[in-house]
Write a structure and sequence with these properties.
Elements: E1 2-9, E2 15-22, E3 25-32, H1 40-53, E4 60-64, E5 70-75, H2 80-87
Parallel strand pairs: 1-3
Antiparallel strand pairs: 1-5, 2-3, 4-5
């Protein structure tokens, strides 16, 4: 399943939840502790999304938006109902 996310780097703790309007429809908000330096934030995004969906990190990939805050991710084996619950907060 593919969906849009909006990343907030430099957060106090990693968190997945909430929605924000985006170019590709409502984007799931993913807050991560690392700043966007040398791919650290992207690595943390993959880990946070994997934890939120209960899948392995290898099952999560960033499809587009590697250098920006708005990204498209793909989660293999993700539950669409869980995505809706996470977006609702």
């Amino acid at each position: 399943m593919r969906f849009a996310i909006h990343v907030r780097p430099g957060a106090r703790h990693d968190h997945v939840g909430g929605a924000r309007p985006g170019r590709n429809g409502p984007a799931l908000v993913v807050s991560v502790q690392p700043r966007a330096v040398d791919g650290a934030a992207n690595t943390a995004v993959v880990a946070a999304v994997a934890d939120a969906f209960g899948v392995r990190r290898a099952d999560v990939s960033i499809v587009s938006g590697h250098r920006g805050r708005d990204k498209i991710v793909e989660v293999v084996g993700g539950d669409p109902a869980l995505l809706v619950r996470l977006r609702d907060g």
